[in-house]
């Protein structure tokens, strides 16, 4: 606390005056995995966001370097890079309002997201332990794959630490919405900014369920090539990068957009709605404890969860397939923490 306060005091009288004393207006955002393919452009976009007042960058390598570079950008926020290790991690997390987690390995061609589980589960578990200790009230935004399993891992760790609040844990599925909206605009020759396709379920293959019936383009329901692009858009990028990783730049944009939505909602804006993968009551009766659907965001995180609403029969089939897969992915995450606490 004191280090954070001291740094803030040093950051200049003009800046001090520009911000009100209200804690709401002081928004520290922390990126864990900040030197990676996603982490670097994500940190850059967060530095450009005037709602962010403190930007804390942590990685097991290069975070101080990335922070030094980004800190020269002439926006108000204070950027700090932390050394690898427990001390740096705890300091990066202290007082954070939002913690974004893009730490972990990306796919190579031929891999599914689930193939990343063995490596990324323990990375996310360990970062979640640190967050439960040093930022128990932060909103946690999980980007690391497989999201369908890493989000339940964070939930289990927070439960064990006695600090779990389901309103503050989010799997970031914004990229699916971004892609669906872009792909539709390519077909319909519309402005992609005006498209906002609802995507529900999870974040991998058949668990990704776009609801074109709820858009202005009913005729796109059941269009096989479009559905495949939305469900396997990640694979397009993995193939094109040919062994050098997966989506990083579009993901950085999507992560920055979701963080911005949470900051807007925290600062009092109403009607901020984003699909996101959360601890959800919608399909708990079917044994599916986490589900992405439209969520209204508020100052405390999740304000209201929307059910999927009226959907086409073809979409219902997709949803049934989604739920079957999702259940297994979620159970895998929960089992991992039980067996590897
Ligand atoms: P990357 O390898 O380029 O970067 C990952 C970074 O994490 C590296 O800098 C690495 O040093 C760091 N890291 C590893 N272990 C760490 C730890 N214990 N603490 C802190 N940092 C650690 O990978 P990338 O392309 O940035 O992808 C990161 C993850 O995001 C992957 O799992 C990928 O599958 C996932 N991803 C998710 C989405 C989504 O829509 N949710 C989209 C794209 C990628
Ligand atoms: C994506 O959707 O691009 C990410 O989940 C990365 C991947 O592995 O496809």
Automatic annotation (TrEMBL):
Assembly and oligomerization: Homodimer.
Keyword Mitochondrion applies: no
EC number(s) from the headed UniProt entry: 1.1.1.37
GO MF annotations, alphabetized: L-malate dehydrogenase (NAD+) activity
Lactate/malate dehydrogenase N-terminal domain segment(s): 28-171
Keywords: NAD, Oxidoreductase, Tricarboxylic acid cycle
Organism: Calycina marina
Catalytic activity: (S)-malate + NAD(+) = oxaloacetate + NADH + H(+)
Protein name per the record: malate dehydrogenase
GO BP of this protein: malate metabolic process; tricarboxylic acid cycle
Domain of life according to the entry: Eukaryota
GO cellular component terms, semicolon-separated: mitochondrion
Broadest EC class assigned to this enzyme: oxidoreductase
Annotated ranges, domain Lactate/malate dehydrogenase C-terminal: 173-337
Similarity remark: Belongs to the LDH/MDH superfamily. MDH type 1 family.
Keyword NAD in record: yes
């Amino acid at each position: 606390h004191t280090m954070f306060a001291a740094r803030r005091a040093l950051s200049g009288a003009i800046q001090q005056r520009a911000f009100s004393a209200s804690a709401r207006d002081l928004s520290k955002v922390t990126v864990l995995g900040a030197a990676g393919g996603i982490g670097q452009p994500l940190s850059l976009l967060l530095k450009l966001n005037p709602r962010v007042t403190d930007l804390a960058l942590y990685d097991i390598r290069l975070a101080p370097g990335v922070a030094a570079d980004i800190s020269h950008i002439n926006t108000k926020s204070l950027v700090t890079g932390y050394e690898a290790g427990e001390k740096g991690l705890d300091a990066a997390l202290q007082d954070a309002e939002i913690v974004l987690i893009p730490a972990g390995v990306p796919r190579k061609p031929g891999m599914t997201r689930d193939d990343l589980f063995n490596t990324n589960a323990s990375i996310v578990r360990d970062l979640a332990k640190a967050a439960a200790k040093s930022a128990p009230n932060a909103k946690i935004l999980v980007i690391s794959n497989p999201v369908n399993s890493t989000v339940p891992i964070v939930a289990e760790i927070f439960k064990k630490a006695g600090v779990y609040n389901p309103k503050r844990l989010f799997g970031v599925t914004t990229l699916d919405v971004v892609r669906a909206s872009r792909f539709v605009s390519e077909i319909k020759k519309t402005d992609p900014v005006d498209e906002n396709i609802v995507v529900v379920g999870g974040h991998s293959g058949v668990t990704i369920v776009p609801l074109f019936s709820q858009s202005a383009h009913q005729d796109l329901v059941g269009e096989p090539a479009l559905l495949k692009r939305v469900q396997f858009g990640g694979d397009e990028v993995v193939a094109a990068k040919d062994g050098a990783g997966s989506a990083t730049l579009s993901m950085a944009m999507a992560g920055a957009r979701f963080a911005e939505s949470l900051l807007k909602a925290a600062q009092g804006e109403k009607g901020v709605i984003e699909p996101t993968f959360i601890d959800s009551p919608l399909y708990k009766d079917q044994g599916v404890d986490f589900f992405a659907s439209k969520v209204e965001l508020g100052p405390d995180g999740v304000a209201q969860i929307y059910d999927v609403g009226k959907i086409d029969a073809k979409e219902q089939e997709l949803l049934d397939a989604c739920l079957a897969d999702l259940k297994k992915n979620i159970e895998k995450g929960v089992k991992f923490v039980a067996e590897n606490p």
